[in-house]
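Obj: model holo form, ligand = zinc ion.
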Amino acid sequence: MTGRDDLHERYQAAHTAHRTHQATCRTCTDTSRCPAGQRQFESFARLQDAYLNRQRQRRR
Ligand SMILES: [Zn+2]
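Output (holo structure tokens):
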């Protein structure tokens, strides 16, 4: 362990990438995503799950 919160950083970065993509992509909407947008959304969702799971475990 390095002590740095890599998971949180990656989660934030994925969130920013996803938001930036949605703001600039002409194909992505609230209800549908282009393949690139879908990939970004999935990696963001995966990191968010992992991060929130860890937060829950720490709280006990
Ligand atoms: Zn897109």
